[in-house]
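Note to self: user wants both folds in one dump. Writing first protein now.
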Amino acid sequence: MPTDRQILTLAQWLSPAYPVGAFAYSHGLEWAVRAGDVRDAPALRDWLSDVLSHGAGRADVILMAAAHEAEGLEALDAVDAIGRAFAPSAERLKETDLQGAAFAGITAEIWGGELPALTYPVALGRAARLQGLPLLLTARMYLHALMSSLVSAGIRLIPIGQTDGQKVLAALTPLCEKVAEEAVGQGLDELASSAFLADSASMKHETLYSRLFRS
């Protein structure tokens, strides 16, 4: 069973207060709202459910697990290279690159350990191993934090109320658990994405003249 310290460490790492800049990214959601693909709370729930099950949510956990199991920096760099190659657009690459570098820098300064600039899920997986944090718990809390950040973006973009936003997050929580449990046991050979609309939205977001978010 995870200890209180482990849970609280992950709560700190994945808190909106941790300075990785997650608030600046919508993961392509801004384009989807502009295009009319996401108009209300049920549509937001469905969109994010697909991101979790068939897109970046599942893929990030697979990358995180590979980083957690990587023996040495050479193996870790190989996982990170795959994570960068897997990004579907320039903005999504920047999103994971900048958040990962920020996470690695602040975490290494506070907790120590060899933690180079890596893509976000790879950096988190490596840091969890260095601090002896359970992989499954890390994956569950990461997915919940990702959904929380994107729900917050949806509240601002659609817009929907805070209560509806929290209903969406509560509805997605069991799926965060399910995806984490399935993906932690999958290897890099099973890395895939079929969330085509979300990936396409992240590409189209690059063409927006005015925007609130960086992706």
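First done. Writing the second protein, which came from a different request thread.
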Amino acid sequence: MKNVIHFVRKSTISQELDHQENLLNDTSKQNGWVVVEVIRETISGTKKNEDRKGISRLQEVVNQGGIDLVVVWEISRISRSPRDFHNLLSFLHERKVGLYIKNLNLFTLTDDGKENHITSLILTLMSEISKMETLTLRERVKVSLNNLKQKGVVLGRPVGSKEDENKLIKKYPEVVKYIRKGLSIREVSKLTRISINTTNKISKIVNKSNILHNV
């Protein structure tokens, strides 16, 4: 019987974690694995490991001992950066903890704790592909913006708007916190006693910031 950690990640507030969690729960149940902890993260997979609270928590739990396997739905849930992915995989393997990628049905360690070199090769390729997809998306966005400029569309925020947005974010930190947790505008407004109009403005700023970070 294996003790496992479920690791689930989404890039934006609008995405759901439930589907990932349900799939991983079914997998662990079918294999008789004991789920010690579920780590949930809402952040872009392109962020560095040291900037991700989910990865920090994963390392903390693994260092405590007693973990056999980290279970994720796909490789991009762990990282879209080949370098960070390999650093994390090395960290896990040094502690005899394997990684299981559900959608590929791949284990990075064999049952006797040895590194599965074929799996590592496949995951290296998948990680590089994931990185290429991110770079391609960024290039598409860049091309689209250039096309809009050529058509005479004015891009960017009005002068001074960025400062106004920053002031609004700093003035209502509680609103920002609940929005990032995925609560609705109406729920946040009730909890913080801030008007729906103001809450809606802050929500738009937060969501816009998430989109820009995840492109």
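Dump finished. Worth passing along: Residues 117-150 form the longest helix (34 residues).
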